[in-house]
Amino acid sequence: MLHGPCISDSRGAVDHLFCFRSLIWPDVAESWLIRKRSSTWPPTDVMLNSVSQGILLVPIGSKFGSTEDCSFEWRISFSLQERDLIHSFNYVQVLCYTIAKYLKKDLMGESRLCSYFIKTAIFWLSEELDQNMWTPENFVQCIHEIQRRLLYWVRYGYCPHYFIVENNLFEGLLPLERKLIEDALHNLFPLLLQSFFYEKT
């Protein structure tokens, strides 16, 4: 089944996207390799392995360009690198990502808060916070940090792409859409506490 640039299997459970692979690391993402980080994440070996895999070029244009332009545009995909980064997460980082995605999907409704925004926030926080922060006893505080970072981005209308900082992931979002995301984020922390309370009772 054709779904935009993707082809889904008969059950609609898996999407296949045709793409080209380039082993040349793009100049626009050079800053990811050399920027100063407050923590030891991501590990050097993970970064080197990520670069060696190259990047993917996918036939997806900007959602906010003209229809004619979009049909000729390609996007740089760092999905290989994102996979490696997630695999390098510790238990608490994985748990934060999983819980935040669950709350977004099942409890927040149609807020335009996509999972990619959450993943981007965790990537940024992982390299800014001390790795000792990502421990079970700090789990709720970590979730709170994710919420605060996303709220900050929404209020200023700028969500920096993790690999290409100049790319604003909030580009094209209308003020009303940003307000819906902000409202959903304000509910994130109370919903998490309610979920914990429900599980314990």
Write the layout of secondary structure elements.
Elements: E1 2-3, E2 6-8, E3 15-17, E4 20-22, H1 30-34, H2 44-52, E5 55-58, H3 67-70, E6 75-77, H4 79-87, H5 91-107, H6 115-128, H7 139-156, H8 175-200
Antiparallel strand pairs: 1-2, 2-3, 4-5, 5-6
Helix pairs in contact: 2-4, 5-6, 5-8, 6-7, 7-8
Largest sheet features? 3 strands, antiparallel
Mean pLDDT: 84
Number of helices: 8
Shape: globular
Query: From the alpha-carbon coordinates, what is the Rg to the nearest angstrom?
Result: 18 Å
Which structural class should the secondary elements be placed in?
Answer: mainly alpha
Structure in words:
Helices cover 51% and strands 9% of the residues. The chain contains 8 helices and 6 strands, in the order E-E-E-E-H-H-E-H-E-H-H-H-H-H. The strands form 2 sheets. The chain has a 3-stranded antiparallel beta sheet with strand order 1-2-3, with no helix packed on it. It has a 3-stranded antiparallel beta sheet with strand order 4-5-6. Helix 2 (44-52) runs antiparallel to helix 4, helix 5 (91-107) packs across helix 8 and helix 6 (115-128) packs across helix 7 (139-156). The N and C termini lie far apart (44 Å). Residues 96-174 form the Mab-21-like HhH/H2TH-like domain. Belongs to the mab-21 family. It comes from Mytilus edulis.
Which short descriptors sum up this protein?
Mab-21_HhH/H2TH-like; MAB21L/cGLR; 51% helix; single chain; three-stranded antiparallel β-sheet; Mab-21-like HhH/H2TH-like domain-containing protein; 6 strands; mainly alpha; disordered N terminus; 201 residues; 8 helices
